[in-house]
Design a protein that fits this description.
Largest sheet: 11 strands, antiparallel
Structural class: mainly beta
CATH topology of the largest domain: Jelly Rolls
Strand content: over 45%
CATH architecture of the largest domain: Sandwich
Shape: globular
Length: 280
């Protein structure tokens, strides 16, 4: 398998600095995860009633071999592999035509078999709880609060012309993939009662309204996938957020136009939105 694969900080393809050559021979489960669905039999009728279908978790088996220049390098390579096969969240990156990644954890015992003093084969089972394959490159857009300039100019001259211009407060996020993806918003204070409106191309909107105040230097992270609201990296603030009619999601092959406002204007306030295109 010539496609570059990286597990955590360990490249599983190519030759590393110690002269160990890594080769991935198979990657099972990368193409598609299973699904979660139920069928309820129809009473006194043929067939069944289908439920909503969702993707299940994505188990992935990585198989490969590595060849070292000496025994010590082989031992070190085995240790590196076992560390990369982490018990906690780690990134599996597959650099095909569009580099994509998933977050995985070890879900089975790693199998390593020596084929001699300088060569070994391995099989790793990892599972992505979130089955989406995300773009390796994250998009990020920022905007300050909208401000209005212009108006009347004195002394007045006739005929009177009103010229006002509103700037800032908007940006767009795009999903080039094949399944919906959820953005993450970071609000930097000072700001009072910020409101984020996400508009789809068809004009439908989703709104996030935060009913509290952020001080100077405060940061509020709103994760639309995890449905979490965290202040300054530690304090949960979910109770202050209203999501109507739902949490924002970027449809596949589509975009969201993001606009935000607050109860009062402060030039230091900033909204940053990040998202990754997602594929099944």
């Amino acid at each position: 398998m010539a496609i570059p694969v990286t597990l955590g900080a360990l490249p599983l393809t190519g030759t590393d600095d110690a002269g160990v050559e890594w080769i991935v021979t198979d990657l099972t489960g990368w193409d598609s995860p299973g699904v979660r669905a139920d069928l309820s039999p129809r009473q006194a009728d043929h067939g069944a009633w289908p439920s909503q279908v969702y993707l299940g978790a994505r188990p992935i088996t990585i198989e490969g071999v590595f060849v070292a220049p000496d025994e010590a390098s082989l031992d070190a390579a085995i240790d590196q592999l076992l560390v990369a096969d982490s018990l906690t969240d780690t990134t599996l990156l597959v650099e095909d035509s569009i580099p994509r990644q998933v977050t995985v954890r070890r879900s089975g015992p790693p199998l390593v078999k020596r084929a001699g003093p300088y060569e070994a084969s391995y099989s790793l089972l990892v599972t992505a709880a979130d089955p989406r394959r995300y773009a390796a490159v994250e998009q990020s857009q920022s905007a300050g609060l909208p401000s209005t300039t212009g108006g009347l100019t004195f002394p007045l001259t006739f005929p009177i012309v009103f010229t006002t211009t509103s700037t800032g407060g908007t940006f767009s996020l795009v999903n080039a993939g094949s399944i919906g993806t959820r953005p993450v918003f970071t609000i930097t204070g000072p700001v009072v009662e910020p409101v984020i409106v996400a508009e789809r191309p068809d004009g439908s909107t989703m709104q996030l309204a935060y009913s509290d105040t952020l001080g100077v230097g405060d940061t509020l992270v709103i994760d639309c996938g995890a449905h979490s609201v965290v202040l300054n990296g530690t304090t949960g603030r979910r109770r202050f957020l209203s999501a109507q009619p739902s949490w924002p999601e970027i449809d596949p092959g589509s975009s969201l136009a993001i606009q935000w406002t607050a109860s009062s204007y402060d030039p230091a306030a900033l909204l940053t939105g990040t998202a990754r295109s997602a594929w099944m």
